[in-house]
Amino acid sequence: MSTSTTLNIIFISSNKNKVREVKSILADNLPIQIIPYEVDLLEFQSEDPDDITRAKCIEALRIISSDTNWIATNLNPKTSHLYSSSLNQCQNTQVTSTNPSTTLIMIEDTALNFDAWGGSLPGPYIKWFIKSIGPHGLFNTLQAFPDKSATAVCTFAIYTKFMPETTIKLSTIIQCMTRGVIVEPRGDNGFGWDPCFEPDSGPNMNIPLNDARRLTFAQMPSSQKNSISHRSKALLNLRNYLIKKYFSK
Fold it and tell me: Is the CB of residue 181 less than 8 Å from the CB of residue 152?
């Protein structure tokens, strides 16, 4: 694909904050159009983010395929060619692909894992924890535990097919992480659990825990958060993949 051609990415999300972050990182100075498709997908039960992301993609493909009015308004299905490939750039997996498409479908899943809870919970259920108890409640759940360490995990999957008669195969999956600690909420920026997540990297690197100089995601400007967050790491890996795949010829 030449740089004069636009790569359309349908991003399945009802979270406008995530859409904004995706646009600012993935489409920066590239002919990429992020097309949000707002739908609340079923919450699939698994502790494996890869399994959840795959299941979400299958569900999203089913919904989009039946939404003929939306397709007619936003896409030309005849331009959507199919291919299969695999990728996990965070783990340096070899990439193979054929028949590149100009229309992709993208799913994101976020997990937050507490070391004190075995390293896998709340995990992918963090969305419902935040909706139910908020950042202050999340912080309070760890008050009985001396270890407040946590890992933020972001998983992206991209598919290039939304035709219901074809077998759904994974095209691209990327997963990246950011280590940090859960603290009493501070800051007005960001969204979700940003106010109670204090990353160990970026401006907090080499600053001891419980030091007032440490910042939560919600205390950082978006540009600073986007330089170290789990989502930005995954998006930058995905961006590099897209450049090599679609814009380097």
Answer: no
